Amino acid sequence: MPKKRGADIVIDVLLEENTEIVFGLPGGAIMEVYDALYKAPLKNILARHEQAAAHMADGYARATGKVGVVMATSGPGATNLVTGLATAYMDSVPMVAITGQVPTHYIGTDAFQEADVVGITRPITKHNFLVTDIKDLALILREAFYLARTGRPGPVLVDIPKDITQQEYNYKMPTEKDVIDALPGYKPHYEGNPVQIKKAAELIRKAKRPVLYVGGGAVISGASEEVRQLAELARIPVTTTNMAKGVFDETHPLALHMLGMHGTYYANMAVYHSDLLIAVGARFDDRVTGKIDEFAPEAKIIHIDIDPASISKNITVDVPIVGDVKIVLQKLLKELQKKPVEWVSARESWLKQIEKWKEKHPLSYKQSDKIIKPQYVIEEIYKVTKGEAIISAGVGQHQMWAAMFYKYKYPRQFLNSGGLGTMGYGFPAAVGAKFGRPDKTVFAIEGDGSFVMNMQDVITAVQYRLPIKIAIINNEFLGMVRQWQQFFYDSRYSSVCLAVHPDFVKLAEAMGAVGLRATKPDEVRSVIEKAMEINDRPVIMDFVVDREENVLPMVPAGKSYREMILSPKQKGEAETMYLVG
Amino acid sequence: MSENIAPLKVRPQPKTEVRKHIIVVRVQHNFGVLTRITSLFAGRGYNIESLTVGKTNEPNVARITIVVEGDERIIEQIIKQLRKLVETLRVRDITDVPHIERELVLIKVHAGEDKARDEIMRLVNIFRAKIVDVSPDTYTIEVTGGSEKINAFIDLLRPFGLKDIARTGTLALVRESAKVKEKLQE
Predict the structure, then answer these.
(1) Which residues of A lie closer than 8 Å to B, measured between beta carbons?
(2) Which of A90, A186, A273, A311 to mutate to test the interface with B (most CBs of B within 10 A)?
(3) How many domains does chain B contain in total?
(4) What are the tens digits of pLDDT across the range A294-334?
(5) Are β-strands B99-110 and B171-174 bridged in parallel, bridged antiparallel, or unpaired?
(6) Does position B4 have pLDDT exceeding 60, yes or no?
(7) A578 and B36: CB-CB below 8 Å?
(8) Which of A108, A157, A468, A485 has a CA that sits 20 to 30 A from residue A265's CA?
(9) Other beta carbons within 10 Å of A190
(10) A159 lies in a domain?
(11) Last-in-domain residue among B69, B96, B123
(12) Same structural domain for residues A539 and A466?
């Protein structure tokens, strides 16, 4: 075998791992790799900012389930990836980041564009590597892909000094066995303990008021079908977290929609009153539980998760099951089918109670004919796209409205930064999603504050002629912070007013995109329809909405579900409504 | 609206005591592995009482002994987080397993007067320590033992005036008899 340049070895491994697309931005330390990319048979997307490149790789990975690949140069290139890596880490997104590093003999000398990238990214990656010998390069890269996509997925970073990309080496492509042998301590547990599964089945049989609480793990494991089967077989209502939207069809009669801080009244009521909570690939995040010792106070808890460290971390569970959600659910279903039980009658009164809660407080808002309500925009997007679009959201009020008022049917349909809560995520992630799913309509639902954090990369979408629909829910506020200030800080609006914005329509035109604006409710539909007709470039829709609309219901941070705020009494004043038993 | 308030119900919280644990970790002896372990503790706010690291009889395997204080929940989390590290081979909490525990300490103590020198010599003998360096007004003492013995020895020397102390941190090995018992249980 002829000798190969380190940079070409990088490309060989990317191709071996079936990489079809790389997002990034070159610079001095990674030039050799970009030189090898020049003639490589894979798509190479030039972003305008490394953070956006990282979110693109993340959006691509979430929309497709494949590993997203991002590249950046040393120093500032790599530090710009940090937020993207932390976002992917918190939401368990499979990603490989390849960063250039200063040449080996310069490391530690404070060389130009040098940063200790392995040190900086250690706590925000699943694992990371600094390549110090070209002999290890191929194996390390393959380990990176293997770690990224197996077990609980996550981002893995490989830092490659420039001299190693330039050296030549007579290498052999490492096999999967070589990779596994190189990681003797890494053994994800997929199968689930049969004794625990039996116990879980027993609890499900006995439960009178069970609730399925499904999280992002069910999406990652591809367990949508198993969740539906379990819900229908055992007649268990299903609430999904923000990360699991669409894993269970939200138009299904057993759907309770989202739970937690901005969960529905009926989901939170069901969880509060449940006697059995079956957590499936979810991690009892504080935004879900609120006050931990009043969370599902009477429920026994079954927790299925591939990460043992997620189990009994925030809440002590009764039946822990470590394993892949899909495999465990299949086994649980088999176990349940062993004995016939009249589920329908056993659950009847519980499901009736839930219906009452649903009728009492459905998700709602007060429509207006003068001013655009943000929820209305989301509903119209839902109608025009017939519920089929991929929605990528930023972080803030618009994210919650996008979660509440679009009804998701499929997993991987709603992309957002659930764990880290990264503003500026939505639009670049939509770019990645569109590259991964060109067959789908992709909407970036963005807040005005969120959008301006990464709007430079509209240029990237224009360059690659991506017909992404960007809907800005523009309230000229950092709306979620403003809402908290209204509720908890006596309406002292400190540093949240964003009245100074670019003219988004002109901005779109200046960047080569199409700009549209709606200021009245009756313009909303036609703006969305116009946007749907454009197929060769991105569209920015500026929806000028009610400035002080609030996201409700809301369980204030650290409070119990009993203290859920349901509706505003009048403008500027919130009414606390307690749960009805 | 008071009639609408759902009755207050509280999840029973498990009660556990805070105590010292000895955790033994075997890791692949790779570049940066120790930083991964220590930054895990720092990043999650766990306090390390002592940490020792050294090579083992197996190539490329290092053994880390960590002493840490916490309740059952925190210790369980620490163990799980340690296991989650890719380079970790094995993690064991040996606190409740019969084991041998040793620490090596070097102590420099003031010993200018004859009376003090005699008294310190006596303590050194009782504790089976060793004087390894002598100057006109100090002794440097080497002592090994479990943490209770070491702490008792240091407390007894304190009145003479301690100049400096270097501790290795706790090392521990499970007793072979305990291993046999474990195998039988398995």
Answers:
(1) 118-119, 122-123, 126-127, 130, 132, 147, 183-186, 272-273, 292-298, 307-309, 312-313, 315-316, 562, 577-581
(2) A186
(3) 2
(4) 999 999 999 999 999 999 999 999 999 999 999 999 999 99
(5) antiparallel
(6) no
(7) no
(8) A485
(9) 16
(10) yes
(11) B96
(12) yes
